[in-house]
Amino acid sequence: MGDIRQSLLPRDVLSAAKELLYHLDIYISNMVQSGRQPPQVDSKTQELVEEFILHAPKDRNTPARRMSALQELQLLEIMCSCFQEQSRDTVRQLMFSALFGLQGNQADESRMALLGKLVSMAIAVGRVPILECAATWLQRTYRVYCVRLAQVLVDDYCSLVPGSGPTLQNIHSASPRFCCQFITAVTMLYDLTTEELTPPLELLQMIVSWIQDDPRLVLINFLNTPISGNHPVNSMDVTPLGGLMRWCIKAPLAYSRDKKQALTNGSTASEPEVGPLFSALHLSVLQVLMLLPNILNEKGLFGRLALLKMESLASLTSDLSRLLDQADKHAPSTDTPALPQLALDRLAQALQVSMANRALLCSREDLRAICSRLPHNNLLQLVLSGPVMYYSPISPAMAFSPRASHSPIASHPTHPAHPPTHTSTHTPTCTHTPLLSVPRSAFHDGGAFPLQTQPLTQTM
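The structure assignment produced for this chain is given below.
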């Protein structure tokens, strides 16, 4: 394609970009049809993309070409049509990579700016092929850039334009793959370390509703991604489970901190109560974790692949310890220990369910070392000491209420465990003691991936 540069130079910026997209489509289609392996866009074509679409100057003496806002909008519409009309997914993916695959050069900033606008428009006008290509891009790109794209979309649909949230809501049904990757990215973007890094209420409501409607959503990419040993070190996690777990555990203390800071600054908290949302989210995360044994068995990965990493868990407990220290220093004498205990209870529940269902692979000694700086909590102590003889059933009104000030063990000491209706297909390697039975009514019923009542078992 290098010989078309001279024909593009006399054209105006929009006409040149449109013409190059046309030639790029033909070039990649022919390459795929010829069976060339691996199908890869050459460096001269990449240079044309940078010069005539991203408008990076070819050399220092060449002035940069610029588009007006109207021309840029027209280019985005042309790109949407181009991807929509191309019927072969392989060609679309290669075109998307040629346009937005990061090269480690100055043109990457232009790539990110154009990508954010294109994906935002694709959400607005329902261009599923672009969302599918963006999902693949998120899977293969360094997490720092994935977070930047997520920030653009949150700004566009949750901050800048009031009432535009329902448009973003539709990606759940339009492209589950992109929706799952988007959730993973926003859990990395909002780590609850400051008030600015807490998720907007509208975004939180959206994510909770997505997962309640279909718990399987957070596993979409894991289910559809070949497991290999060359997963990029700095790429996003294969599921958003770890990020969602961090949200639920840190939320009671983080939002309490932000509320006190707002009152100290002379303002009042205007957001509705977020506690029930995180309660529902925590329950959904536990629900998804309990689905993993059958899924991991089907893939032959039960006990071999940890979806939750020890490094992430160590970072979480470190953040939680810091939040607890801040709560102790700034809490008025009239405060009750309900919120710190709620955070620790959620950590204990997440650890137990993760270990029982082999989402977390570690020894009790490693777990005790990671949690050594945390204050005493009855439920956490039981999980760390193991084996535990009995847990009460999970109930939304039990440990998940922000007003709960006692352990779930003490709150329902005589509640009987429900008999299991489903037996895991894997053969245990040691004798297990039933710990936890989850009533079907505690979870969303009737979704696309229905839950079956299943006991949790203690694992070492």
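Interim note for the steering committee: The chain is about 55% helix and 0% strand. Confidence is low (pLDDT under 50) at residues 263-271, 388-460.
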